[in-house]
Write a structure and sequence with these properties.
The protein is of the alpha/beta class. It has eight helices and 14 strands. Strands 2-1-5-10-11-12-13-14 form an eight-stranded mixed beta sheet, sandwiched between helices. A two-stranded antiparallel sheet has the order 3-4. The chain has a two-stranded antiparallel sheet with strand order 6-7. α2 links the parallel β1 (24-27) and β2.
């Protein structure tokens, strides 16, 4: 019998499963870092982890760090440089294999908004947002330069919108070959992992379709929580539940239980 687990844990494990051994990977704080270091602890021991602050080759000590340069992540790092090295050299040059970013809003082409929410749109001239968000941080660099990136986001209609009010981090823009036409080095988002399931881009249109749903959700529930007409990829199926080994590895990374939410 599979042990009980939370939606946040399922999302982190599903995201971590996308990380391959030996990859150069960049993680943000919070769930992004939990997913990445779960992968390292469980199936990708040779993953080369870094943060956008320039900490390379570390493994968290005493729980997940509070920031990208916290002692928990910097004390055993192979190198400790700067954001210029991490984002300006390794990511912008296309050397980074995979990144994980979060989102306040995401649309059907995987464009991410973490800047602000404008009621009625921005308009012809810039105006302050009605709701100010946290900003892009290094996510824009990751979205532009990483060979692929993963998006982690809670699945609810206010987040899954037809079109984001502002593109903080580009996905596939308006679809098809838009990234190539605009000269992006990186390949774009390969998956959106949510608290309900997994979406992946259609190989031609680049619109995100449903590829899998978690044991506690369903395709109908996911469609209902998505503002666009969410289609289902051929072969879409339930996502395997976490194994005991996966949960043990995840909880060893998050020893304080800081991210073990419902």
């Amino acid at each position: 019998m599979i042990a009980e687990y939370t939606r946040q844990e399922m999302m982190a494990i599903a995201t971590g499963r996308e990380i391959r051994d030996g990859e150069l990977a960049i993680f943000g704080v919070g769930l992004s870092m939990l997913a990445g270091f779960f992968a390292q602890a469980h199936h990708a021991p040779r993953v080369r982890a870094m943060t956008e602050g320039g900490i390379y080759g570390a493994t968290p000590l005493g729980g997940l760090p509070w920031g990208i340069e916290c002692n928990r992540i910097s004390s055993n790092a192979t190198s400790f440089t700067s954001a210029l090295d991490a984002l300006g050299c390794l990511v912008a040059s296309g050397r980074c294999d995979v990144g994980i970013i979060g989102a306040a809003q995401v649309d059907r082409f995987g464009n991410v908004n973490t800047t602000g929410i404008w009621v009625g749109g921005i308009g012809d001239a810039y105006r302050p947002p009605n709701t100010r968000l946290t900003g892009a941080g290094g996510a824009n660099d990751i979205a532009c330069g990483a060979k692929r990136f993963l998006i982690m986001v809670g699945h609810e209609p206010k987040r899954f919108v037809e079109k984001v009010s502002y593109i903080s981090s580009p996905g596939y823009l308006d679809g098809d070959d838009a990234r190539q036409r605009h000269g992006f080095v990186g390949g774009g988002p390969s998956a959106i992992i949510t608290t309900l399931g997994i979406l992946r881009p259609h190989p031609e249109t680049k619109e995100f379709h449903l590829d899998g749903w978690f044991g506690f959700s369903s395709p109908d529930q996911i469609r209902h929580a998505t503002a666009w007409d969410l289609k289902v990829l051929p072969g879409a199926r339930p996502v395997p539940e976490p194994s005991k080994a996966e949960l043990a590895a995840l909880r060893k990374v998050d020893v304080t239980g800081a991210l073990r939410k419902g």
